[in-house]
Write a structure and sequence with these properties.
By secondary structure, the protein is of the alpha/beta class. 32% of the residues lie in helices and 16% in strands. It is built from 11 helices and 10 strands. The protein has an 8-stranded mixed β-sheet, sandwiched between helices. Helix 10 (337-346) links the parallel strand 9 (324-329) and strand 10 (352-357). Helix 2 (93-109) packs across helix 3 (124-136) and helix 6 packs antiparallel against helix 8 (297-304). 47% of the residues are buried.
Length: 393
């Protein structure tokens, strides 16, 4: 395992490009431009022709353990925030792909890197896969809401490799697996099916859950996602039929943090502790900080709709034409083993590698996580070196 550590410079910079959207869905800044906050973490006196690029749909990872451990190990790293930094209520995944494309182009044209390796951490995994799929062969011409969005016109530059690090399959897939299946009235989150309410002490269905219950629960989750999608499409169609082609509506989705795996550790088993990555799932289930709590109509279809969202990790992974590394963490309570396995199995390129870091949590945070993080970085370093991407000039 590599032990040499490097000091590095953190260089903040901006990527700016024109925003020709018919509808502006971000607040503040210069309205006719997209401005992406970016950081280049460059090891001192370690030149390289290769850069690792991170982007998450809602960003915020420039100071996470992984994105800082890599430059300490001698890798050049860019962490670029999307235009939706910290707020995903109006997020359009197609626009995030555009943002990532601007970052990849900038890494080559401004900073002079020959090779770009995408690092899809957590929710950045499906984003990286969606980007790479469309950069290789653009097929998307409209957002799931039907708004024009020509991926071919963006002239996205394909990356040279993809890493999926503690990644889940997609935002819409993860939301659906986490949705509270007991909610039967979206306008009244207290109206619930008691036999599907995981947090109801009177529910006869208790951990360990039966297979019969789990099938019923998972089917109810998908059905709930589809009910919301049906309402979204109807509302959007009603607005358009009245000539309000650019109008939007915001809405709240309660009960989005109720995955049986958080209460029954025998499901999708690993070394995780009970609960979810945000704490007590019963508390966060209706709290303000959770997946899809606040959304617009277009955003729901683009990032949360089970049937309509384009950024599906396994579907996009099947089209990969570049080497791919998949790293899972065995104590992860956000991205459980089935997600890691599904992504790995879906990768269509023959050069694919999977590694599980035993005992590692989602963020590699905690007093015992240093060696786990070091192991992951060592695997990345070896994988990149074997493909000629870790060499210095």
């Amino acid at each position: 395992m590599a032990t040499k550590q490097f000091s590095y410079d953190r260089i903040p910079y901006l990527i700016v490009f024109d925003d020709d959207s018919d509808y502006r869905d971000t607040y503040g800044g210069v309205t006719e431009s997209v401005v992406l906050e970016s950081f280049l973490m460059r090891p001192k006196d370690v030149p390289s022709d290769t850069v690792i690029v991170f982007m998450h749909p809602i960003g915020g990872g420039a100071y996470l353990p992984m994105s800082n451990a890599l430059p300490r190990a001698g890798h050049h790293v860019i962490y670029c925030n999307s235009r939706y930094r910290g707020v995903d209520s109006a997020l359009i995944m197609e626009k995030v792909v555009q943002d990532l494309g601007a970052c990849v182009r900038d890494a080559r044209e401004r900073w002079g890197y020959t090779n770009v390796v995408l690092a899809g951490w957590s929710g950045g995994g499906a984003l990286s896969l969606y980007y790479q799929q469309q950069a290789q062969e653009p097929t998307v011409t409209h957002t799931p809401a039907g708004d024009p969005f020509d991926m071919a016109a963006l002239e996205l530059q394909p990356a040279d490799g993809v890493m999926l690090l503690a990644a889940h399959v997609s935002r819409h897939g993860t939301l659906t697996e986490w949705m509270d299946a007991s909610v039967v009235d979206e306008n009244d989150p207290d109206e619930r099916d008691p036999e599907l309410d995981l947090y109801n002490p009177d529910n006869p269905n208790r951990p360990p859950y039966t297979e019969e219950f789990l099938v019923r629960y998972r089917q109810a989750q998908v059905a709930r996602n589809r009910r919301i999608t049906t309402w979204v499409k109807k509302t959007l169609a009603d607005l358009r039929s009245r000539g309000h082609t650019l109008e939007e509506r915001g809405f709240v989705t309660h009960g989005t943090m109720a995955d049986p795996r958080w209460l029954d550790l025998s499901l999708d088993p690993n070394d995780r502790e009970p609960g979810c990555y945000l704490g007590d799932p019963q508390v966060v289930n209706n709290g303000p900080v959770a997946l899809a709590r606040f959304s617009t109509l277009r955003s729901w279809l683009s990032q949360w709709s089970y049937d309509d969202a384009h950024g599906d990790g396994p579907r996009c992974a099947a089209d990969l034409r570049v080497p791919t590394l998949v790293i899972g963490n065995s104590a992860d309570n956000a991205c459980t083993p089935s997600h890691t396995q599904r992504l790995y199995e879906a990768v269509g390129h023959p050069d694919k590698t999977m590694h599980t870091v035993q005992g590692a949590t989602h963020y590699y945070s905690g007093p015992d996580q240093g060696p786990k993080l070091a192991e992951a970085v060592s695997v990345i370093t070896e994988w990149m070196g074997d493909r000629g991407w870790a060499k210095t000039l």
